[in-house]
Design goal:
With about 375 residues, this protein is of the alpha/beta class. It has 13 helices and 13 strands.
Length: about 375
C-alpha cells in the first residue's frame, strides 16, 4: 500500500510509522555519540548503560520478578529481529505456536522458518478473546502463545483479567508466552498497559518484546529489546549472537543518556498519540465511516460498510488511486479473513495538517 500511495501521490496512512521526528534532545545525544567516537560494535547483549536504564524503569513499573540488566535484557536491532530470535530459540520442528488473528504479519513466517506450525485462531467477531477455542486448541505440541498488546492492527489492549484467564489456562504447563509490547507507551483514556512481565503466574514463561523505534518516533533506527528471565534470555542470545550480534552503538548510548535526563518521557508519548487519535477520530465523526474503539498504539480501525460493499483490498486500492488516501485492508492480518468484513486500518501518527488533508477527503465519501 505504501508503494501504491507513492505511485499515485496519495496521503499515506497505511504503513505504521510517524511522520515527525524524535525529540530534539535525543537527536542531540545521537550526534554527540557519533562525534564522540561511539561507532564500533556494542557488546552482544547491548550497552550496559542502556540495559541498566531499562531495568530500572521496568522494575519501577512493577514486574513479577526483578529484572537483572546483566542477564534479563537483550538489545536488538528492532523488535522484528527480537521476535525472530525468540521463535528460532524456542520453536522446534513440529511445534505449534498459537496466534490470534488479526495478527502482525511477521509472526507466522518466522515460526515456519523455525520449523514450527502457526495455529491461527480468529478473535471473536467483537474482537474479544475466544477463550473456549483457545482452550480446545492447546495440545501437547503447543510450545508458545503470542499476545500483542496494545494490538496492531486493532488498537486494543490485553487487560489484567485477560492475563489472569490466560495464566489459568497455562497452569502446570511449560508453554511460553511471547508478548509483543512495542506500543506499550501508547495507551489512552487513563487505561493501563499490563505487561506479561507483571503476571506472577507467568514469570517463568514470559518473554516481552519492546521497541525504541516506536517509543522515540524513530522506526528507522531499528532499536528494540527483549526481556525475559535469565534462563530464557540465555537461549535467545544463542540465536541472536549469530543473527545480528549487536544493535547500533551510537543510538544505544544516546537512548540511555536521554532517558536518564527525561524520566517522564514515556508519559508524553501517550499524550501525543492520544491527542492525534482524538483529532483524527473527531474529524471522522463527521464522515460515513464507523470507528472501532482505539485503546492504544497509533492505528484507527474504521468500518466502511456504509460507503461501499467492495472487499477491503479493493476498497483500499480504490481509495488510494481515486481519492489519494492510503490505508491497510484488515484482511491482510488474517489467514482466513471474514469475506463480509469491511474494515480498514489508518495510521494517525502523522502531522495534524496531513491528518486534516486526509479528513477533508474521507469526509466527502
Amino acid at each position: 500500500m505504501s508503494a501504491l500511495a507513492t505511485k499515485h501521490n496519495a496521503i499515506n496512512l497505511s504503513q505504521g510509522f510517524p511522520e515527525f521526528n524524535p525529540p530534539p534532545g535525543l537527536i542531540d545525544k545521537v550526534n554527540e555519540s557519533l562525534l564522540g567516537g561511539k561507532n564500533q560494535y556494542s557488546p552482544m547483549a547491548g550497552q550496559m548503560s542502556l540495559r541498566e536504564v531499562i531495568a530500572e524503569r521496568q522494575n519501577s513499573w512493577g514486574r513479577s520478578f526483578a529484572i537483572n540488566p546483566e542477564t534479563d535484557i537483550t538489545i536488538v536491532p528492532g523488535a522484528t529481529a527480537g521476535l525472530f530470535a525468540v521463535f528460532q530459540a524456542f520453536v522446534q520442528r513440529g511445534d505449534e505456536v498459537i496466534l490470534f488473528d488479526p495478527s502482525y504479519d511477521s509472526y507466522a513466517p518466522s515460526i515456519v522458518l523455525a520449523g514450527g506450525i502457526p495455529v491461527r485462531i480468529p478473535l471473536n467477531q467483537d474482537f474479544s478473546m475466544p477463550w473456549e477455542l483457545l482452550k480446545s486448541s492447546i495440545t501437547k505440541r503447543t510450545a508458545m502463545i503470542v499476545v500483542n498488546t496494545p494490538h496492531n492492527p486493532l488498537g486494543l489492549i490485553f487487560s489484567r483479567s485477560d492475563w489472569s484467564m490466560l495464566a489459568s489456562l497455562l497452569q502446570n504447563t511449560e508453554i511460553l508466552v511471547l508478548s509483543d509490547e512495542v506500543y506499550e507507551h501508547m495507551v489512552f483514556d487513563q487505561k493501563d498497559h499490563v505487561s506479561v512481565l507483571q503476571i506472577p503466574e507467568l514469570h517463568n514463561q514470559a518473554i516481552a518484546i519492546s521497541s525504541f523505534g516506536k517509543t522515540f518516533h524513530a522506526t528507522g533506527w531499528k532499536l528494540g529489546y527483549v526481556t525475559a528471565k535469565a534462563e530464557l534470555s540465555a537461549e535467545i542470545r544463542k540465536v541472536y549472537q549469530f543473527l545480528a550480534f549487536a544493535a547500533n552503538t551510537p543510538m544505544q548510548f544516546a537512548a540511555a543518556e536521554f532517558l536518564l535526563e527525561n524520566p517522564e518521557y514515556e508519559t508524553s508519548v501517550s499524550e501525543i498519540m492520544q491527542s492525534k487519535r482524538n483529532f483524527f477520530a473527531d474529524g471522522l465523526s463527521q464522515s460515513r465511516f464507523q470507528l472501532l474503539p482505539c485503546e492504544g498504539a497509533y492505528f484507527q480501525i474504521v468500518d466502511y460498510s456504509s460507503i461501499s460493499d467492495k472487499r477491503d483490498s479493493d476498497f483500499a486500492e480504490w481509495l488510494t488511486i481515486e481519492h489519494k488516501v492510503a490505508g491497510i485492508p484488515v484482511s491482510a492480518f488474517y489467514q482466513n479473513p471474514n469475506p463480509n468484513q469491511r474494515l480498514l486500518r489508518f495510521c494517525f501518527a502523522k502531522n495534524n495538517d496531513t491528518l486534516q488533508k486526509s479528513l477533508d477527503v474521507l469526509c466527502r465519501l
